[in-house]
Amino acid sequence: MSPDRELRVSKIRNGTVIDHVTGGQALNVLAILGIDGSEGFGVSIGMNVPSDRLGRKDVVKVEERELSQSEVDVLSLIAPEATINIIRDYEVVEKNRVERPDSVTGVLSCPNHNCITNEDEPVRPRFDVVSEGVRCGYCSEIIREDIAEHIDV
Ligand SMILES: Nc1ncnc2c1ncn2[C@@H]1O[C@H](COP(=O)(O)OP(=O)(O)OP(=O)(O)O)[C@@H](O)[C@H]1O
Ligand SMILES: [Mg+2]
Ligand SMILES: [Zn+2]
Fold first, then answer.
1. 120 lines ligand 1 (CB under 6 A)
2. pLDDT tens digits for range 106-115
3. pLDDT tens-digit profile of 49-66?
4. Which residue's CA is minimally distant from atom 18 of ligand 1?
5. Cβ–Cβ < 8 Å for 52, 1
6. What domains, with CATH codes, occur in the chain?
């Protein structure tokens, strides 16, 4: 891209850049991280920006924040090509591709109102990742395409 067609956004000093996110999924990534802007740290998102690899991609940059394994696990379900870049002192110090996990714990809630994970019990929701989507480890309810609608924030 020619320099006069590029928009420069401030670099972040410390935090995480989630790159190569499936186009249109950036707001769901923020939901997985439980970020709504009230936290007070810098967040910038690009949606449907051109990408050599993906055609179009979203990018999410969050200051002062690293991701937990359960957040990365759920993220991999909605953005299977994502790369997680850890930024320290303005530089990328670590880069990881997400991997489809065998199961995800926390973050998602079970759509079955009668499921024990929706009662007042100290049970953390756990889902097995299956070919059709994710399956509740307690009641076997399956969440298919609409995984992002079941992010528990
Ligand atoms: N300090 C920073 N602040 C904000 N964004 C950054 C910073 N450093 C790198 N990035 C962004 O993080 C991502 C990864 O940076 P990197 O320099 O590894 O790019 P790359 O070589 O294109 O990586 P890849 O091969 O994964 O596409 C890019 O989207 C880049 O714009
Ligand atoms: Mg790149
Ligand atoms: Zn359930």
1. no
2. 889 999 999 9
3. 999 988 999 999 999 999
4. 92
5. no
6. 10-97 (3.30.70.140), 103-150 (2.30.30)
